[in-house]
Amino acid sequence: KGLKASAKVLNLDMTEKYSQQAQVDAVPDSSKRVLTIPVIQGLTPTYFVKLSLEDSAVKLVSSNFYWLSTKHETLNEAKSTWFYTATQDYADFKALSTLPAVELKASAGMKTRGGQDVARVAVENPSKNLAFFVRLKIQKGAGGEEVLPVLWEDNYFSLLPGEKKELTATVEAQNWQSAGPVLVVEGWNVAARSLPVTR
User: What is the number of H-type helices and E-type strands within the chain?
Assistant: First the structure.
């Protein structure tokens, strides 16, 4: 009861081109059309859509981020087979390569619980630009091997200007004696940086 769905459409430079909110009640495992994004003029060739859903206590329940192109893909139906349809014309995402570089703020702490090491990570985008496709990893020491397998609460995400994200990573308990845990933050337009994880 009392969920709030939000949709934002943003140009490459983070100019907001459209925003809408709607109240919705939903039962588990259901789908419902809540709002429709109209045709929008003045979009950059690559643009973004952010969808979010909050509960009645304003707690984020779901968040989705899409990068889209004003140039639609067309399929080559004439050469279609029963298992494959070739793409004749591709969407244009070249503008992603022009995103300005972003430096993120980050911090991480780790605790051992029941044979597992759980890292709590906070990442913030203090810039006025999008931090696109951010990837986090934990490794043994600076320049060491990535610790795998790992269960991230979320990864490969994007942060809007001023946005902050807190999440956890869980790995089997490690022997950190020789090289302590290190968090690596990198992304499409985010220069890789490493910082120690406090224990």
Answer: 0, 14
Do residues 181 and 196 lie in contact, with contact meaning Cβ atoms separated by under 8 Å?
yes
User: For residues 125 and 160, is the Cβ–Cβ distance under 8 A?
Assistant: yes
**Per-10-residue mean pLDDT, the chain, length 199:** 96 98 92 94 97 95 96 93 94 97 97 95 98 97 93 97 97 88 97 93
Contacts of 61 by beta carbon, 8 Å cutoff, 6+ apart: 3, 53, 54, 55
Residue 54 CA to residue 60 CA, distance in Å, equals 4
| Token pair recorded at residue 124 | 């913030």
Distance (Å, whole) CA 199 – CA 7? 39
Which residues partner with 102 through β-bridges? Answer: 190
Please measure the distance between the N-terminal and C-terminal CA atoms of the chain and give it in whole angstroms.
40
Closest by CA to 124, choosing from 148, 105, 109, is: 105
Instruction: State the amino acid at position 82 in one-letter form.
Output: W
Please report the pLDDT score of residue 175 as a whole number: 85
**DSSP conformation class of 157:** E
pTM of the full structure: 0.91
- Residue 119 near residue 109 (C-beta atoms within 8 A): yes
